[in-house]
Structures are given as structure tokens and as C-alpha cells.
Amino acid sequence: MIKPSFATLITLALLVSSGCALTQPHSNSSRFTPATLYESVVIDPRSRQSIPLEKAVNTLSKADVVVIGEYHGHQASHLLQARVLKHLHAINPHIALTLEQFNLDHQDDLDDYLAGRTGETEMIEDADAWDNYRGSYRPIIEYARAHNLPVIAANAPALTVRCVGRIGPDYLNALPDKQRQKLPAHPFRDTPAYREKFIEAISGSHGASDPAIADRMANVYKAQLLRDNTMASRILQARNSYPGHQVLHLTGTFHSEEKLGTVALLQKRAPELSVAVLSPVFWPSDQPAPSLEEHRRKGDFLYLIQPLPPEFRDRERRNSAMKERFKRRSNATCEQD
């Protein structure tokens, strides 16, 4: 399992932080190998066998909510998402999309684009779309626009998330009523298993045992919970606003795998809903494959993808780049007027 660095985890928590051409197992190996970075192999973890995407979608179509975890910016994740959307829509024309990749305070900007009142660049600027929008999420949004599917911006406002991570949960008390009312009633609800997973993810990070860093990480975890609770709340709002619609939710895999994070909080709020999760697993094509056993609990279905190339080999350059990215995103003030 690849664990994020301490700096990466803080950045992700504060800032936010495939196509299935199937390749069969090698003749004398249990390894499944996506042939390119665009491809993925869908696995049924119960049988531990690869299956056609269409077969997985037939099962997913029976759920009230389908959640696809992703590694942000991975071509195979985004191609798989587009194909799952297409196949689900062919089975049920009533689909609503909820996306982590847009923040709820930019719902009007997203709606303006879907309604044809603004152009793509205007939407990207107005809605503060992610830097990889054109390469990763454009196909999803364009499919929704072409078929008049509702799209819900599901994430918490970016500044609010950052300021909770920086100041702590009390930051919400200073928000204007109009802003606070858009957030969930219980913004920091969590589950023990998710808390343990979060702690495990940072336990190997440099300085994680330092008391000062531990205090900071407690706020970072609250910021993470704010995002998860907001996404769970927005999924429920989508179900209420569009009765009879199946919801397809796209999110980073940490928020959904093992049905923790957003999924667990959604099920706490609405235990009557059936929720199916499709989770990615890195599967190097040039190395012996790890056992599927350690990944079986990640989702109702898994999809295997090639790892992305490392951004940096030089640790100093990596740390410098992370600091610069964090600095660029952290210059907004958390003071209330």
C-alpha cells in the first residue's frame, strides 16, 4: 500500500485534505495487467476474477447510490468513470451526478455552464474548477450537459475547509448564517474505523508523533470530516431534489474505499439507501502482483490501474514543490469581516 507523505496529506486535506479493455491473467500467473495508463481491469473481489465492465454496471445499476473512487488525474480512473456513466445511463435515464471536484458555493456557476449561459473557460474560472478539469472531468460534464443530467457540486467550500484545518472547528461559528446553513448540520460526524484509517495513513509521516504536529493534524482531520460530511449531505440533497434518480458520486478513493468516509457518513444519515463502491487498486505491470486479499474490502468492485510515474526522485525538490503548492493555496485570510 502506498501511503501519502505527511506534507501531501496535509495539503490534500486542507486544499480539498476507465476504460475497461480487459487483459486476462498471464498463463502461469495470477497477475492482471492493464496494458496502458488509459486502461483498467475490473475485478469482482468475491470471485477474484476479472469481469467485463458491462457486467459490473448491471450490478451497480441496482444501487441507489454508486460511488467511484479515483486517484485524481489518473487517466484510467477518469475514462472508467465516463464509461460507467454511459452504461448506467443506458440502463436508467434518471441519473444525477454529485462531484467532489466542485464546491457547493459554486453551484450557480456550474448551473450557468450546464444551461449554456457561459462558456467553458468562463465556467472554469468562475467555478474555480480543478487544474486538471479539461483532461479529467470535461467528458463527464459534457455527457451530463448533452443529456440534461443534473450535476451537483458536492464538496465543502475550499476556504472553509482550509480555515478549519488551520484554526479548528470553531471557525464555523464565525461564518455568516447564509454560509453556515449550506453546510451539514453535523459537519464533523465520524466513525472510529475512518479515524483509525486516517491516523494509520499519517503514522509513518515525519514528525507525526510531535505534540504540536498532532494538534495540527487533529484540525486537518476535522477539515477532512467537513468534506466527507458535506459530500454525504449533498448526495442526500440530490436524492431529495431528483426523486427516482440514481446518484453517481465521483470522489478521491480515500473518501470511499472500504465504505468509510463519505460512504459511512451517508449510510449513517440514510441507512435505508443501498450504496455500491468501485475502488481503484494500483497494479504494476512490470512487478509481481500483490495478493488481492489485502484489497478485497475496498469496494463492491475493484478496478486495477497502472501506477502513475513518480513526480520526483529528488526528495528536496519534492519537499520544495509541496511547500510552494501549499503556499500558493494558503494565502487567503481566515479572518471574518
UniProtKB/TrEMBL annotation:
Residues 313-324 have a biased composition (Basic and acidic residues). Residues 313-337 are annotated as: Disordered. InterPro entries: Cofac_haem-bd_dom (IPR007314). Keywords: Signal. Residues 1-23 form the signal peptide. The keyword Signal applies. Pfam families: Cofac_haem_bdg (PF04187). Residues 57-265 form the Haem-binding uptake Tiki superfamily ChaN domain. The keyword Signal applies. This is Haem-binding uptake Tiki superfamily ChaN domain-containing protein.
